[in-house]
Amino acid sequence: MAGSGKTTLIQRINAHLHATKRHGYIINMDPAVASLPYGANIDIRDTVKYKNVMKQYNLGPNGGILTSCNLFATRFDQVIQLCEKPRDPPLEYIVVDTPGQIEIFTWSASGAIVTELFASSFPTLVAYVVDTPRVTNPQTFMSNMLQACSILYKTKLPMLLLFNKVDVARHEFALDWMKDFDAYTAALEADSSYAATLSRSLALVLDSFYANMRAVGVSALTGEGMEEMLAQVGECAKEYKEFYVPELEKAKADKAAKEQVRQ
């Protein structure tokens, strides 16, 4: 989610990994960011010049970001090779900072290539960063949950909700809304608009989505929740091995069978 503090959170994660002597690898996939608060091991800006892409192809800002990511994705096999390179000690975490505009990464060719290459090589999860103070509005909360749901069903990877900025607004209300339909409808009680009625209906639809969703409150400013987040990352890795890997093996077998028939 744009403006949720995603890049600052990655800086905090990077600092926490260094402080606890864990070995991480940071990749920046946002070609339009002016400066990074962390040192990226791989930076798209070293390969693709966002402003040059805009000029060359006569594009606007979003088109420039999309095209830059697509160009970078054509070389992403080299990125995977760098991540797989043997190290002593070995890497424990690979963190990818994506563009804040959800549709640019999630629904683009580059997003599909990046997620599929990582998911076929490493235990992979998607972290959706939520701006906690903004989602205190129940309709904004529902909008975020729908976006998270769309990403989950597009990637089919384990997902972790990170409620950022808990130093400004606590996230427990959001956990209550996810667990208790009545608590969410009570928050909408004073609103009789069509959007509020739609949000109530969608809360029922998303009940099964909430039931299997992991969520952690974090603060990019104070570092709160970092250990709990890493613990949930470990749980997502187990989920990846239990559910995603069998599906991946089945897809490979089906593809091999079709190829054999074709020949």
Structure in words:
With 263 residues, the chain is mainly α. It is built from 12 helices and 6 strands. It has helices at residues 6-19, 50-57, 61-73, 76-84, 102-106, 109-119, 138-155, 172-179, 181-187, 194-205, 207-211, 226-262, and strands spanning 24-28, 42-43, 93-97, 126-131, 159-164, 214-217. The strands form 2 sheets. A 3-stranded parallel β-sheet has the order 2-1-3, with helices on one face. Strand 4 (126-131), helix 7 and strand 5 form a beta-alpha-beta unit. Helix 2 crosses helix 3 (61-73), helix 3 runs parallel beside helix 6 (109-119) and helix 8 crosses helix 9 (181-187). The protein is globular, with a radius of gyration of 20 Å. The mean pLDDT is 93.
Features:
globular, 11% strand, 3-stranded parallel sheet, mainly alpha, 12 helices, 263 residues
Explain briefly what this protein structure is.
By secondary structure, this protein is mainly α. It has 12 helices and 6 strands.
- Number of strand elements: 6
Order of helices and strands: HEEHHHEHHEHEHHHHEH
Largest sheet: 3 strands, parallel
Helical residue percent band: 55-70%
Strand content: 5-15%
Number of H/I helices: 12
Give the distance, in angstroms, between the N- and C-terminal Cα atoms.
46 Å
Which regions have little confidence, pLDDT < 50, spanning 5+ residues? none
Secondary structure topology:
Layout: H1 6-19, E1 24-28, E2 42-43, H2 50-57, H3 61-73, H4 76-84, E3 93-97, H5 102-106, H6 109-119, E4 126-131, H7 138-155, E5 159-164, H8 172-179, H9 181-187, H10 194-205, H11 207-211, E6 214-217, H12 226-262
Parallel strand pairs: 1-2, 1-3, 4-5, 5-6
